[in-house]
Write a structure and sequence with these properties.
The complex is a heterotrimer of chains A (512), B (106) and C (726). Chain B is built from three helices and no strands. Chain B is an all-alpha fold. Chain C has 726 residues and is mainly alpha-helical. Chain C folds into two domains: 3-117 and 140-615, no CATH class; 622-708. Chain C is built from 29 helices and four strands. Chain C has a two-stranded antiparallel ribbon with strand order 1-2. A two-stranded antiparallel sheet of chain C has the order 3-4. In chain C, β3 and β4 form a beta hairpin. Classes of the chains: A mainly alpha (512), B mainly alpha (106), C mainly alpha (726).
Chain lengths: 512, 106, 726
C-alpha cells in the first residue's frame, strides 16, 4: 500500500485547511490570484474524491469501511484520529467536494474582505468533510462544531440586511442542540471506555449496566442520550418545529453560503441520523420512530405550505429545503421502525427507505444549491428578491429561464431527474409501515408543485415587467459553469440512478 | 596596654555621634558624613576585637583586617554612589535638605 | 440487432432531438423542425415496423416481446425497467405514431414557417403578423413566424419522447416517468405564450390539477410495489395468483381489498390526466396553448395516457370480477364518474363559443365514455374508442387550427378586430376552405357517430351495446350524451362552415397551406377507416364482411374473447345509437341554420338560466376557487407562515431568548452586583481605609523612617533581651 492509499482521507480532509493557511500567509494582492488559488485548493479534494470513487471497490474493507486511517489521539480516554469511508459517506463527501468549488465560483459578487471570505470557506469545507469521514465520536463532534464557526462569520459578515439576527439565531440554535449531543457523547464514551464508532456500534447498544454514578436506569440513560442525539440532528436537518432558523439563515447568507448551507450543512443532520442514531440506538429509534415520522410529515406539509406563502424568492427556496429534507427523515423513520427485522420483505422496505433517504440528501444538495445559485444570479442583477417585482423574465433571459425551469423541476421531483427516484424510494419504503404518514406526505408533495410553479409563474411567465427591459443580462459563461454540473448530475441520477445507488445500496445492505 | 573596653567605649561614642548626625541633621551631605562616622565606629570595633582575638590565640589572625578592608571599600563605593545621588537630587530639586524631599509621603 | 432493441429505440430519437435543439438549434428554425420531424419520423418508422411484425405474430399477448434492464439496486436484487410490445402496446403505438407525426408536420405550417418576422412579435406572445410589400408596392399584413419556433419543436419532441416511453414501457414506474414528463411538457406548452396572463394561469392550473391525481397514483405505485415486489405488468397483471391475493386481502382503508384500493389510487391519476370530473377543470383552459399542442395533449397522447393506464390495469381493477357479477369498487367508480363526466361535459359543450373549447369539452365527454366503458367491463370497446377518438379528435383539433388560421388571415386582411376563435364570428367557411371543411366534416361526423361509414360510430356503438347489456343507468346516460354530442358537433359545423359569413374576416378567410392540409387528409382517412377493423361479426348486413380483427387482437390481452355476449345481436342499442346520432345532427343543423347574430346564441333565450349555467361551466371554477384555492392559500400564508412559524415557533424561540436574557439580568442585578461585586468592593474599601489611617507613618521624610527603624530595632532588641534570647 502506498503512502497515498494510506492517507487518502487525511489528504482530502486537510488540503482545504492547508490551502486556507497558505492563502492567509501568502502576500497575494490581486483578486484574481486569490480566487484562483482558493479554487485550486478546493478542486484538489474533488479530484481526490473522484479518484477515490474509482478505486473504491478495489480498496480493502475494514469493518465495512475503506481507506481507514487510525492514529491515537487521546489514548487516555480511548479516542483516536480514526477516519474511514463507506457507501453512505462517499456520496456526501462527493457532494461536499463538488459544491465547494462551485460555491467559490458563485462568489464573484463578493468584493470586500475577499481573503477572509475564501479562507473561511476552505475551513468550512474541512469541517464538513470531517463530519462525514470521522469514525470516532469525539472527532465527529469536533468537526461538527468546527463547521459552525466559519458559517457564522460568512453570514454575519457577508450577509444581507438582517444578517446579525440570522447569524446569531443560526449559531445559538445549533450550538444549543449540540450541548446535549456533547453530554450524550461523554456518557457513551465513558461508559463504554472508547469513543471509537466501530467499537461503539457493538458495545453501546448491548450495554446493560452503567458504570457512572448517575442514579438512573440504563434504559432512561439511553432514552435521554437518544433524544439528545435526535434534537441535535433535528435542528440541523431541520425537522419541524426546529426549522425557523433556516429561512432566516438562508435568506441572509451570501449566495455561496446558502448553496453550502442547503447543499451540505443540512445533510450533516441527516447523516448523523443514519450514521449514529440508527446503529447506536436501534431500540429507542424503533420505539420513537412514529414520533419521528409525524415530525417528518409536519416538515413536509408545513415546509411546503410555508414556501407557498413566501413573497421573497430566496425565502421560498429556503422553505423548500424543509419540505425536501422531511422526506429524508421520513425514510429514516421508516428504516428505524423496521431495523433489522427478521422478515426479509420488511428488511427490504427499510433498505429501500434508507437508500431513498440518502439519495434524497444527495439530490437535494444538487437541486437546492442550484436553486439558491439561480436566485443569487437574479439578485445580483436586479437587486431584489421580491417575487412580485419580477414577471415575464423568460422573454429577456431565455438561458436563465431554461436553467431555472430545469432546476425547479429537479427540485419538484420530476421523474427523469434525480429527485423523483429518491422520493419514490422513500415513499415505497415507508408505505408498508407508515401508511398514514406516507399518505399525508402526499399533501406536501402536491404543494411542492404549487410553490415551485408559483415561483416560475411570477418570475419567468406573464407580461414582462417593463422595469427590467434592457436592464437584465442573461447568464454568463461562469454562471453556466456553476449550474450545468448540478443539472447534469441531476439528470444523470434521474436517468441512471444505479451509478450512485449502487454505492449507497452496498453500504446499506451491510447495515441489516 | 589600653584595655578593650576603652576602644569599645570610644567606638560607641563615635557611633552615637554618627547616629545623631544622621537622625538630626538636615543636610544630606552631613547625613552622609554621619554614616561614615558610624561605619568607622564599626571599623574600630572590628579592629579592637581583631587585636584582642589575636592576643588570646597567641597568633596573628587575618579575618578582622579583611572585614575592615571590605568596609572601607564599601564605604568608598557607598559615598560615591550617595554623592552622585545627592547631586542628582540637587539638580532636580535644587536642595539638599532631606526634609524637603517628601515624594514618598503617604 | 435483436428485435427487442428496436422497441428500446422507439422513444429515443425525439429525446435526442430535444437535447440537440436546445443545445445547438435554438436559433435555427429549419434545423429545429428538421430534427424534430426527422426524429418522430424515425420513431414512426420503427413503430410501423413493430406493428407490421405484430400483425404477423401469433400469441403476442401471451408472449410479448420484451427486454429488461437493471435500473435501481434494491438490497440484494435489482428493480428492473424494460420495454414490451403486446397487442395493446402495438395498437396504441399505431395511433400515437401516426397522430404525432401528423401533428409535427402540421406544426410547421401552423407556426408560419417561411413567413417573415413580425416587427412587433415578442417571445412569449403569439405572432402579431407582419407587413410586406408586394411587387406592385401594396402593403399587406400577413401572418408572421412564431418567435419561439425552435422552442416549440424542442418541447413537443420531449413530449413525444414521453408518450412513446409511456407506451412501450413494461412497468408502472417508467410509465409514471413518461406520464409526469408529459405533464411538465404540457405545462410548458400550455404556457407556451407565457407572457399572456391567461396562458400562465392555465399552465399552472393544468399542472397542479393533474398533480392531485398524480400524488394518489404515486401512492398506488408504492403500495403495488410493496405488496407484489414488482411493478412489471406481466409479474402483476399476467399472474392470476398475484391478482387473486390482491383481490382477497383486505387493506386498512374502508374495508377495501388491496386490489380495489390500488385500483382507486391509480384511477385518481387517470381522473387528473384524462380530465374526468371533478378534476376536469384544467383541460378547457389548456386551450391557451397553440393548436397543435391542443391536438397532441387532448387527442393523441396525454389524455389518452390516462385511459391507457386504466385499460392496461384492467385485470387489476377488475380482479375478482366475472362478467355478470357485481362490479368491483374501482369499476363502480369508473362507471359512475365516466358516465357522469360524459354527460356533464357534453352539456357544457353545448354553450361554448370558442371553437377549441367545444372540442375540449367534447374530449372530456368522450374520455368519460371510455372510462365508463371500462367501468362496465367493456375492455375492447374502450380500447377501440380510444383509438378512433385519437384519430378523429386529433383531426378536429388540427382542422380547427386550420380554421383559426384562415380566420386570422381574414383578420389581417380586413383589419377587423374580431376573435378568430369565436365560432359566432365565422360562418360560410366551406367555400373558402374546402379541404378544411371536408376533413372537419369527417371528424365531426365521426365524433357524432354518424352510422356505418365513420369510425366513431363503430366504437361508440360497441360501448353502448356493452352498456345496454350490463348496466342500464350507464346506458341511458351515455345515450343522452351521444345525442348531445351529435347536437353540439352539428352546431359547430353549422356555425363555422354553413350559412353566410357573419363577419368580414370570415368572408376573407383563406385555405391553409398544403403542409397543414395534408395531415388533415391523412387523419381524415383514419377517422373513417379505423372503424372498419372492429365491425362486430353479428352486425346486420355488414357484419362479417370484414373480420373483426380488433376484437381478436386486443381481446387476446384478457386471455378470453373480449366482451362475452357480443355474438348475440340486440337491436335496442343500435337503434339508440343511430337515433341519437342522426337526431342530434339534425337538431343541431335545424337550430343553428338560423343563427345570424354575432353576439347572441339562438338557444340562449329559450334556455335562459340553464344556458348561463352551461356557459359558465356550472360555476365549478368559481366553486373551487372559493372552497379549495383560497383556503389553501390562507392556510399557507396566514396559518402556517404567520401564525405557526412566525408567531408560535419563533415566539417560543424569542421567548427562550428573552428568558435567557432575563436570567442573565437577574444574576447581574441580584447576585453579581450586590454580592460578588459588593464583596470585592468591601475588601478594596477596607484596604483603602487602613491605608489612609497608616499614611501617617509614611511622612516621606528620610529621618523619620530611620528613627522609626531605630525605635523598631530597639524594641525588638528589648523584647529579645527580655525573653532571654540575647
Amino acid at each position: 500500500m502506498t503512502w497515498l492509499d494510506a492517507h487518502w482521507l487525511t489528504l482530502i480532509l486537510f488540503v482545504p485547511t492547508a490551502g486556507a493557511i497558505i492563502l492567509l500567509v501568502l502576500p497575494l494582492r490581486t483578486e484574481k490570484s486569490l480566487r484562483g488559488l482558493a479554487l485550486f485548493f478546493s478542486l484538489i479534494p474533488l479530484v481526490l474524491t473522484l479518484a477515490l470513487w474509482a478505486r473504491f471497490a478495489a480498496a480493502p474493507s475494514v469493518d465495512g469501511f475503506r481507506f481507514v486511517e487510525r492514529v491515537d489521539w487521546y489514548s487516555a480516554i480511548g479516542s483516536s484520529y480514526h477516519l474511514g469511508i463507506d457507501g453512505l459517506s462517499l456520496p456526501l463527501v462527493l457532494l461536499t467536494t463538488l459544491l465547494t468549488p462551485l460555491a467559490l465560483l458563485a462568489s464573484s459578487s463578493i468584493k470586500e474582505n475577499l481573503k477572509a471570505y475564501l479562507v473561511l470557506f476552505l475551513l468550512l469545507e474541512t469541517g464538513m468533510l470531517g463530519v462525514f469521514l470521522a469514525l470516532d465520536l469525539l472527532l465527529f463532534f469536533v468537526f461538527w462544531e468546527v463547521g459552525l464557526v466559519p458559517m457564522y462569520f460568512l453570514i454575519s459578515q457577508w450577509g444581507g440586511a438582517n444578517r446579525h439576527y440570522a447569524a446569531l439565531k443560526f449559531i445559538l440554535y445549533t450550538m444549543g442542540g449540540s450541548l446535549g449531543l456533547l453530554l450524550a457523547i461523554q456518557v457513551m464514551g465513558l461508559s463504554s471506555g472508547t469513543f471509537d464508532l466501530v467499537a461503539l456500534f457493538q458495545r453501546w447498544p448491548a450495554l446493560a449496566r452503567l458504570d457512572l454514578p448517575l442514579g438512573l436506569s440504563m434504559s432512561t440513560v439511553k432514552a435521554i442520550a437518544f433524544w439528545a442525539f435526535v434534537i441535535a440532528f433535528a435542528i440541523k436537518v431541520p425537522i419541524w418545529p426546529f426549522h425557523t432558523w433556516l429561512p432566516d439563515a438562508h435568506t441572509e447568507a451570501p449566495t455561496a453560503g446558502s448553496m453550502i448551507l442547503a447543499g451540505v450543512l443540512l445533510k450533516l443532520g441527516g447523516y448523523g441520523f443514519i450514521r449514529l442514531v440508527l446503529p447506536l440506538f436501534p431500540n429507542e429509534a424503533q420505539q420513537f420512530a412514529p414520533w419521528l415520522a409525524a415530525l417528518a410529515v409536519a416538515a413536509i406539509i408545513f415546509g411546503a405550505l410555508g414556501a407557498l406563502a413566501q413573497q421573497d424568492f430566496k425565502r421560498l427556496v429556503a422553505y423548500s429545503s424543509i419540505n425536501h429534507m422531511g422526506f429524508v427523515v421520513l425514510g429514516v423513520a421508516a428504516a428505524a421502525l423496521t431495523w433489522r427485522a427478521v422478515d426479509a420483505q420488511t428488511r427490504l422496505d427499510a433498505n429501500l427507505a434508507l437508500n431513498g433517504a440518502i439519495l434524497q440528501m444527495f439530490n437535494h444538495g444538487l437541486s437546492a444549491a442550484g436553486m439558491f445559485f439561480l436566485v443569487g444570479v437574479i439578485y445580483d442583477r436586479a437587486h431584489t428578491r421580491d417575487l412580485q417585482a419580477f414577471g415575464g423574465l423568460y422573454a429577456i433571459l431565455p438561458v436563465y429561464g431554461t436553467m431555472l425551469i430545469f432546476t425547479a423541476m429537479a427540485s419538484l421531483g420530476l421523474p427523469g431527474l434525480g429527485g423523483f427516484v429518491s422520493e419514490f424510494l422513500v415513499v415505497r419504503g415507508a408505505w408498508p409501515q407508515l401508511m398514514l404518514a406516507t399518505a399525508l406526505s402526499m399533501i406536501g408533495l402536491f404543494f411542492t408543485g404549487a410553490y415551485i410553479l408559483k415561483a416560475l409563474r411570477l418570475v419567468l411567465h406573464g407580461p414582462l415587467n417593463p422595469r427590467w427591459q434592457n436592464v437584465l443580462t442573461d447568464m454568463n459563461t461562469l454562471e453556466l459553469v456553476v449550474i450545468l454540473p448540478l443539472i447534469g448530475l441531476s439528470l444523470l441520477t434521474g436517468l441512471w440512478p444505479a451509478w450512485i445507488l449502487g454505492m449507497i445500496n452496498q453500504a446499506i445492505v451491510t447495515f441489516f | 596596654m589600653i584595655p578593650l573596653s576603652w576602644y569599645l567605649t570610644f567606638s560607641a561614642v563615635l557611633f552615637s555621634i554618627g547616629l545623631f548626625t544622621v537622625l538630626a541633621r538636615r543636610h544630606a551631605i552631613v547625613i552622609l558624613m554621619g554614616i561614615e562616622l558610624m561605619l568607622n565606629a564599626v571599623n574600630i570595633n572590628l579592629l579592637a576585637f581583631w587585636h584582642y582575638w589575636s592576643q588570646v590565640r597567641g597568633a596573628p589572625q587575618v579575618n578582622g583586617m579583611v572585614f575592615v578592608a571590605m568596609v572601607f571599600v564599601l564605604a568608598a563605593a557607598e559615598t560615591a554612589v550617595a554623592l552622585a545621588l545627592i547631586i542628582s537630587a540637587y539638580r532636580r530639586h535644587h536642595t539638599v535638605v532631606v526634609d524637603e524631599m517628601t515624594l514618598l509621603k503617604g | 440487432m435483436p428485435f427487442e432493441t428496436l422497441i428500446w429505440l422507439l422513444p429515443l430519437p425525439p429525446l435526442l432531438a430535444f437535447f440537440l435543439i436546445i443545445t445547438f438549434a435554438y436559433r435555427r428554425n429549419s434545423l429545429s423542425h428538421g430534427l424534430a420531424i426527422g426524429a418522430v419520423g424515425l420513431s414512426w418508422l420503427g413503430s410501423m415496423f413493430v406493428f407490421w411484425r405484430a400483425l404477423q405474430s401469433e400469441h403476442l399477448a401471451e408472449h410479448p416481446w420484451s427486454a429488461v434492464l437493471n435500473w435501481i439496486p434494491t438490497g440484494d436484487t435489482w428493480f428492473q425497467i424494460g420495454v414490451q410490445a403486446d397487442p395493446l402496446t402495438v395498437v396504441t403505438l399505431f395511433f400515437v405514431a401516426w397522430t404525432i407525426l401528423m401533428i409535427f408536420i402540421y406544426s410547421v405550417g401552423y407556426h408560419n414557417y417561411g413567413q417573415p418576422r413580425g416587427v412587433h412579435d415578442r417571445p412569449g406572445l403569439p405572432p402579431q403578423g407582419a407587413e410586406v410589400k408586394d411587387a406592385h408596392g401594396h402593403h399587406h399584413r400577413v401572418p408572421s413566424i412564431e418567435p419561439m419556433y425552435a422552442r416549440f419543436f424542442a418541447l413537443v419532441s420531449l413530449f413525444a419522447f414521453a408518450m412513446y416511453l409511456l407506451v412501450v414501457s413494461d412497468n408502472l414506474l417508467t410509465l409514471y416517468i413518461g406520464w409526469e414528463v408529459m405533464g411538465v411538457c404540457s405545462y410548458l406548452l400550455i404556457g407556451f405564450w407565457y407572457a399572456k396572463e391567461s396562458a400562465r394561469n392555465a399552465a399552472v392550473k393544468a399542472f397542479l390539477t393533474t398533480r392531485i391525481g398524480d400524488v394518489f397514483m404515486l401512492l398506488g405505485l408504492a403500495a403495488l410495489y410493496a405488496l407484489t415486489g414488482s411493478l412489471n405488468y406481466r409479474a402483476i397483471l399476467g399472474n392470476p395468483q398475484v391478482l387473486e391475493i390482491l383481490a382477497s386481502t383486505i387493506s386498512p382503508v374502508a374495508g377495501l381489498s388491496w386490489a380495489a384500493l390500488i385500483g382507486l389510487l391509480l384511477f385518481a391519476g387517470t381522473v387528473g390526466k384524462s380530465a374526468q370530473f371533478p378534476l376536469h377543470v384544467w383541460l378547457p383552459d389548456a386551450m391557451e396553448g397553440p393548436t397543435p399542442v391542443s391536438a397532441m395533449i387532448h387527442a393523441a397522447t396525454m389524455v389518452s395516457a390516462g385511459v391507457y393506464l386504466m385499460i392496461r390495469f384492467f385485470p387489476l381493477l377488475s380482479a375478482g370480477w366475472m362478467p355478470g357479477e357485481p362490479l368491483t369498487p374501482p369499476m363502480v367508480a369508473m362507471a359512475f364518474i365516466g358516465a357522469f363526466t360524459a354527460l356533464f361535459a357534453a352539456t357544457i359543450g353545448l354553450a361554448q363559443r370558442d371553437i377549441k373549447r367545444v372540442l375540449a369539452y367534447s374530449t372530456i365527454s368522450q374520455l368519460g365514455y371510455m372510462i365508463a366503458a371500462l367501468g362496465i367491463g367493456a375492455y375492447v370497446a374502450a380500447t377501440f374508442h380510444l383509438v378512433t377518438h385519437a384519430f378523429f379528435k386529433a383531426l378536429l383539433f388540427l382542422a380547427s387550427g386550420s380554421v383559426i388560421h384562415g380566420m386570422e388571415h381574414g383578420v389581417y386582411h380586413t383589419d377587423e378586430h374580431v376573435d378568430p376563435q369565436d365560432m359566432f364570428n365565422m360562418g360560410g367557411l366551406r367555400h373558402k376552405m374546402p379541404v378544411t371543411f371536408w376533413t372537419f366534416l369527417v371528424g365531426g361526423l365521426s365524433l357524432a357517430g354518424f352510422p356505418l361509414i365513420t369510425a366513431g360510430f363503430w366504437s361508440k356503438d360497441e360501448i353502448l351495446t356493452a352498456a345496454f347489456q350490463s348496466n342500464l343507468p350507464v346506458f341511458i346516460t351515455l345515450g343522452v350524451a351521444a345525442l348531445l354530442t351529435a347536437f353540439y358537433t352539428m352546431r359547430q359545423l353549422t356555425l363555422v362552415f354553413l350559412g353566410q359569413p357573419r363577419t368580414a374576416a370570415a368572408a376573407q378567410a383563406q385555405e391553409s397551406r398544403l403542409v397543414m392540409t395534408i395531415p388533415l387528409v391523412v387523419l381524415a382517412i383514419f377517422a373513417l377507416a379505423a372503424g372498419w377493423v372492429g365491425i362486430p361479426a353479428s352486425f346486420p348486413l355488414v357484419g362479417g364482411i370484414l373480420p373483426n380483427w380488433f376484437e381478436a387482437f386486443v381481446g387476446s390481452m384478457l386471455g378470453h374473447v373480449g366482451e362475452a355476449d357480443h355474438l348475440i345481436f340486440t337491436p335496442t342499442p343500435l337503434l339508440v345509437s343511430i337515433l341519437a346520432s342522426l337526431g342530434g345532427l339534425f337538431l343541431g343543423w335545424w337550430v343553428y341554420q338560423s343563427q345570424r347574430d354575432r353576439v347572441q346564441d339562438v338557444l340562449a333565450k329559450p334556455l335562459g338560466g340553464l344556458y348561463r349555467l352551461w356557459q359558465n361551466k356550472y360555476y365549478i371554477d368559481e366553486l373551487y376557487q372559493l372552497v379549495f384555492i383560497r383556503p389553501a392559500l390562507w392556510v399557507a400564508d396566514v396559518f402556517t407562515y404567520h401564525w405557526l412559524d412566525r408567531k408560535i415557533i419563533d415566539g417560543v424561540l424569542h421567548g427562550i431568548g428573552r428568558l435567557g436574557l432575563a436570567i442573565g439580568h437577574g444574576f447581574r442585578e441580584f447576585i453579581d452586583r450586590p454580592l460578588i461585586n459588593g464583596a470585592g468592593d468591601a475588601v478594596a474599601d477596607g484596604t483603602h481605609e487602613v491605608g489612609a489611617r497608616l499614611r501617617i507613618l509614611q511622612p516621606g521624610r528620610l529621618q523619620v523612617y530611620l528613627l522609626i527603624a531605630l525605635v523598631g530595632i530597639l524594641i525588638i532588641g528589648l523584647v529579645l533581651f527580655s525573653i532571654g534570647m540575647v
